[in-house]
Amino acid sequence: MADITRRNFVKLGALSAGMVALGESSLGASVLDQKGVKYDQEYDVVVIGSGFAGLAATITAAEKGLKVCMIEKMGRFGGNSIINGGLFAVVNSPKQKAEGVQDSIELYLKDMLKAGLNMNHTDNLKVIAARSADALKLTEKCGAKYYEKLSHLGGHSIPRTYLTSTASGAGIVQPMLGYAEKLSNVTLKNRTKFDDFIADDSGRIVGVVIRENYKFDMKALDDHAENKTGETKYIKARKGVILASGGFCRDTFLRNMQDPSIPLECDTTNQPGATGEVIMKALELGAVPVQMSWIQWGPWASPDEKGFGTASNFNINATFRYGITVDTKTGKRFMNELADRRVRSLAMFNVIGQDQNYPINICDQAAVDKIIPDLTAKALASGVVKKFNTLDELAAAYKMPAAELKKTVEAYNGYVTAKKDTEFGKPVHGVEGVQINKPPFYGTRGVPKLHYTMGGLKINDKAQIISTKTKKPIPGLFSAGGVNGGIHGASRLGSCSIPDCLVFGMVAGENI
Amino acid sequence: MKLKLFIFLSIGIGIGLIFSLVTYYGLHKTSDQKFCVICHEMDPMVVAYREDVHGGAGKLGASAKCVDCHLPHDNILKYIYTKARNGVVEGSIHLFGDPSKIDWIEKRAHRESFVFDDGCLECHGNLLSTQTSSKQAQKMHKHYQSLKGTDKEIHCASCHIDAGHQNMRNTLNYYTPEFEIMKEQMKEKKSEIQEKYQHYGIQKEK
Amino acid sequence: MKQRAQNIFVALCLSLCFTLLPLTLKSGEVTSSSPDLKGRETVTMTQEFKEKYPLKRVHAKLSLECLFCHDGQGNNPEAFKAVREKTCLECHGSKEKIAQRLDFIGKPNPHNSIHDGTRLSCDECHYEHKASINMCAECHEKEIATNMWMRKTP
Question: Cβ B167–C149 below 8 Å, yes or no?
């Protein structure tokens, strides 16, 4: 991603312009007419994408007895889900009952709407809240395992988050893939790219055009436009097509169109295949786009390494929770380190400004003692997190006013003792009394990276895609997961993506 | 005169026989890991060997000895010479050098120089002519034969990198970790296998 | 006197080398065929092809031939298709076996990681005729660059 320079992007623009020019001659051919199509393969359901949503849809539809084909354009199954952190918020879950936590659909909605600035489509949210426990059951049936205890994540008013036993979304994806593979009526195809929809006279989606043996080109500026590999096949989907192709954080063109304020060369935590060609095809069909310009930043990353890297986990677990984030110019704090992702990212960008003044995330040995040793070892060995014997050394390394920094730390330690942060409102009552005073001290430069596209397609409570033309569902077309939009509004709370993907995958599978 | 000759001959034959017997038993007794391990630095090798079919891990429990593969068998003099030379060189490293400095993982790249094909073929001789092995195996073994005697000659160990020592690289890592970050993890593994293989003369570290 | 004899000797050796060089180049152009494919397809492996499609070091050491992998794909290297993992596994056994070889790495074992298990295709990272890549570096850039738990992809 980092190699997309401004000059390259001009080329990218020219390329897109070329595509538009090409497209004009074939305008109106947004969908292939079924007449004259000779099908190479026939299924009841075609699922596009192989993450949480695609797998839930595939397994649910297959267990109804339908013949399902799940396609994935990358060589690797699982999309972003397989590199996801494995945090899964479940409303009214068995573990909540066991731990005596009172939860409700209303409380969940309240938390979500607060972070989402009330922009959320609550009809969708209610489905997620009501069915998340069913989704949990589905994953457990497939063999997913979870940590004993619930986690309490930022923005949630109570603990409701499960964590997979491998601390990765792969802890759900792998068992589900294994489960799907064993079903005789399921076909899984990787390196298979969706190219087009096939519709009948009534406008119902009855199939897809795909390319088999397609190999994604990591080096291409715009793989979707440039990559011609693979053999075209026509696939019939008797019952319909489920889109589970995820968001578009890695689609430089599309995200720039939605929000030009995002720097072109901006890094993201997403996998290289997270581009928007399926969303664009659905929009061509007439799907309603929702909140496409709301793109979420993850505030935990480092400018000194690519993607999620080693710093993110260190910051999530240690510095943000048990430490502080300071401006190098002033040595002062500037935000609630446990606020939601949007609030933190905006505050950080405010500090970063035009001169790349990256803020420093700081914690001490007591914080590090609280987290898995592996996380610290990797972050230190990477060189993105640094260790200092004194706060003076830390201040000197990042060219910070040491006296100011020490004053800031002293004030913060006071808030921890008082269990109240009067300055920025960090919920310090939950940091188990960990102050910043036990050497060595740890510091790392912070930067938000693109993490999640809030926008996408609008679905109803049956996971059917709504059309701008009819204001009704497009027949034969369903979608689930990151490809959808508007569900989480302005900002999604942590651990709320997995239930969204799994629940609507399940719902799509049930309703197709 | 004739008698003298006879006596000399008899004594000669006697000495020869005794010498041969001593050599025979000597060589025999000094051919398995229990003897070799006295001087050679080979704890991880023994462990990986015991995990392998060649070390008795197969159903029949049959095993090859160290020298079956690691000494040349085409010529008895060469055999004895190599054995003696290895003994002296490695024995002195054991006594006077620093065996912990040896990079065993790197040494595996030169495995063709210390695994001898004639040893393998002693047992697997029919491999090169048999029709019962897989088509792929037959194809590659024919390739092996076609390169024999040329400057591109390859050896059994060129392809069969782990033969004789199951998961050699893993076990070597438990003793001398390739990656700094795994040091603690590997220590645990090492003490686990030391526990498991104590009765093969593998020492538990204090 | 001695010095002079030495110089003459060196000169002789050098000239011999230069006369032999074209011969060795010519001998590089051999007809390659796998033993059990005799009478069927053969590939004329010219120096040009050898440079265009170099083999990995370990495979070159074994003198592997085109048709060992590109079996049944005709005899024109330009028209050969990339082989899939099935071909690799003909020699390398199974994905589980390959995973076992790096078992000591544990969770990030590239052949059996907590993300992908044994599910990845070989050619996500390993290329035969060009430099391999490391897919993990997409997210674990620094860890890969510093060889923290993995060496350069062979």
Answer: no
Backbone region of residue A314 per phi and psi (left: phi > 0; alpha: psi in -120 to 50; beta: other values): alpha
Interface contact C114, partner A, CB < 8 A: yes
Is B106 at the interface with chain A, CB within 8 A?
no
Instruction: Among C49, C81, C113, identify where a domain stops.
Output: C81
CB contact under 8 A, B185 and C36: no
pLDDT in tens, A242-251: 999 999 999 9
Give CB contacts under 8 A, 24+ apart, made by C46-50. Answer: C49/C77
**Nearest chain B Cα to A378, which residue?**
B181
CATH top class, domain A299-450: alpha beta
Please check whether residue B139 is in contact with residue C34, taking contact to mean a CB–CB distance below 8 angstroms.
Answer: yes
- Residue B80: what pLDDT? 86
Which residues in C lie closer than 8 A to residue B189 (C-beta atoms)? Answer: 104
Strand pairing report for A68-71 and A41-48: parallel
Which residue in the set C61, C104, C148 is minimally distant from B186, CB to CB? Answer: C104
B39 strand-pairing partners: none
Residue with tokens 């930067």: A447
Contact B182 C105 (CB under 8 A): yes
Residues 6+ apart with CB under 8 A from A210: A71, A192, A193, A194, A195, A232, A233, A235
Q: Which residues neighbour A402 within 8 Å (Cβ) at sequence distance 6 or greater?
A: A331, A391, A392, A395, A396
pLDDT band at A318 (very low <50, low <70, confident <90, very high): very high
Distance from CA of B162 to the nearest CA of A (A): 29
d(CA A323, CA A364): 7
The CATH 3.90.700.10 portion of chain A extends over 299-450
Say what the ipTM of the complex is: 0.86
Cβ-Cβ contacts under 8 Å, A215 against chain C: 82
Which chain A residues are Cβ-neighbours of B177 within 8 angstroms?
none
For residue A396, give how far its alpha carbon lies from the nearest alpha carbon of chain C (Å): 24
Q: Which of B135, B140, B146, B147 to mutate to test the interface with C (most CBs of C within 10 A)?
A: B140
**pLDDT surpasses 70 at C20:** no
- What range defines the domain where residue C46 resides? 28-81
Q: Give me A493's structure tokens.
A: 């709370």
Q: Which of residues 116-155 of B touch A (CB under 8 A)?
A: none
CATH topology of domain A28-294+454-511: FAD/NAD(P)-binding domain (3.50.50)
Active site residues of A: 341
Size of interface A-C (CB pairs under 8 A): 66
Q: How many domains does chain C have?
A: 2
Locate CATH 3.50.50.60 in chain A: 28-294+454-511
Per-residue 3-state assignment (H helix, E strand, C coil) for chain C = CHHHHHHHHHHHHHHHHHHHHHHHHHHCCEEECCHHHCCCCCEEECHHHHHHCCCCHHHHHCCCCHHHHCCCCCCCHHHCCCCCHHHHHHHHCCHHHHHHHCHHHCCCCCCCECCCECCCCHHHCCCCCCCCCCHHHHCCHHHHHCCCCCCCCC
Per-residue pLDDT tens digits for A27-39: 345 678 888 899 9
With a CB-CB cutoff of 8 Å, which residues 67-96 of chain A face chain C? 75-78, 82-83
